[in-house]
Amino acid sequence: MTLPELFKNYLKTQKISSVTIKNYVADINNFFNWLESKTQIKHQVAGISILGLFTKETIEEYKKEQTFKNIPLSTINRHLSALRRFGSFVQSQGWINKNPALQISNPESPAIKEDNQEEILKRFKEDLREEQITAVTIKNYLSDLKHFLGWLKEA
Question: What does the pLDDT look like over 56-72, one tens digit per residue?
Answer without folding.
Answer: 999 999 999 998 888 88
